Amino acid sequence: xxxxxxxxxxxxxxxxxxxxxxxxxxxxxxxxxxxxxxxxxxxxxxxxxxxxxxxxxxxxxxxxxxxxxxxxxxxxxxxxxxxxxxxxxxxxxxxxxxxxxxxxxxxxxxxxxxxxxxxxxxxxxxxxxxxxxxxxxxxxxxxxxxxxxxxxxxxxxxxxxxxxxxxxxxxxxxxxxxxxxxxxxxxx
Amino acid sequence: xxxxxxxxxxxxxxxxxxxxxxxxxxxxxxxxxxxxxxxxxxxxxxxxxxxxxxxxxxxxxxxxxxxxxxxxxxxxxxxxxxxxxxxxxxxxxxxxxxxxxxxxxxxxxxxxxxxxxxxxxxxxxxxxxxxxxxxxxxxxxxxxxxxxxxxxxxxxxxxxxxxxxxxxxxxxxxxxxxxxxxxxxxxxxxxxxxxxxxxxxxxxxxxxxxxxxxxxxxxxxxxxxxxxxxxxxxxx
Lengths: 188, 236
Ligand SMILES: [Fe+2]
Prior knowledge:
The complex is a heterodimer of chains A (188) and B (236). Chain A has 188 residues and is mostly beta strands. Chain A has one domain (20-176): Aromatic compound dioxygenase (Protocatechuate 3,4-Dioxygenase, subunit A). Helices cover 5% and strands 27% of the residues of chain A. In chain A, the strands form 2 sheets. Chain A has an 8-stranded mixed β-sheet. A two-stranded parallel ribbon of chain A has the order 2-10. In chain A, a hairpin with a 7-residue loop joins strand 6 and strand 7 (132-138). The longest helix of chain A has 5 residues, at 20-24. In chain B, the strands form 4 sheets. Chain B has a 5-stranded mixed β-sheet with strand order 5-4-9-10-11, with no helix packed on it. In chain B, strands 3, 6, 12 and 13 form a 4-stranded mixed β-sheet that branches. Chain B has a domain at 54-116 and 138-217: Protocatechuate 3,4-Dioxygenase, subunit A. With 236 residues, chain B is mostly beta strands. In chain B, a hairpin with an 8-residue loop joins strand 9 and strand 10. Chain B starts with a strand and ends in an 11-residue tail after the last strand. The model of chain B has no long low-confidence stretch (mean pLDDT 95). Chain B is globular, with a radius of gyration of 19 Å. Strand 11 (186-187) of chain A pairs parallel with strand 2 of chain B, so a sheet runs across the interface. Fe (ii) ion binds next to strand 9 of chain B.
């Protein structure tokens, strides 16, 4: 016999289910009066320095169908490449019930510790048994030294992590859960 | 602090055909692994000013009038894999009402809405990682999957640790519920012991006589290890 290491196993994930909004964005589904505003509604104060950008996207399943019940969370650095303070840089969006679109108005993050500017993204929904972690990089930035993008074995999948510049500070980032053009998901 | 690698054996399989929705929504290709960076290592810190007085009281937080159902306390601790209590962790919960109906336009189940039950709550853990909710026992409900599939009584939990890489959404089940073993969503988890860890025992030590029963549900999130060598100077 030896001593016990004493680590605890992580609790198992379970799907967020179709009613994730009730807990995470109740005002979005018309449950008002419990929380003044949904968590992560605005990632930065109005006077935060930096370039204003608008991100939009949808999440599609393996058959190309747009998910209209997905929740996406974002975690990003400020324009100087610093995380925080507090919950600054965190945002949460539910996709539109009809179109499946989400939209996030934020500021363009600065580069952090040798990595190209990017936003951490976490996706949950009915049918997703454990939250999916990915990243949103920006078209037009220099990605030639980014440690993650440069070491992807399948370089033809790299564009799945890069939001398309659609002009005037808007970027498009569609996520594909499965099949052709499957987004690179991370275990980091 | 450094995040410990996630042990996927503790988790459900992404593709679990018994749960039909997972079939088109599970990635087919391998996850790309890497050491956590500042993006995964840091995370939002929520302050106590976020939390309203009744946020963790689902019996009263919707209208101020009490919701219908069996009154229960749900309490426990948020710990990480190293065994440390995680202080200041944001815990959000949502659930069906006592009849098994959600306040959501996509839920058309026969059971009626309770005008005094919203169905969500949140709290921040204390210094030792402890949290507490007052709520009603949610009802089991049928759902479209197999012809006659029912969800066991459950409460959905969303947990933030100190790092974005610790994000976890899970569900709490109730001791003794015969629907647990039959549930296709529960059974996306291949490891029976991992399922058992999601089942909260009745805790008469925390029940309040003539008031409510209690269930204890500890949640373990990914470990953040800390060693004296962690922040060593460059070149040492
Ligand atoms: Fe549920």
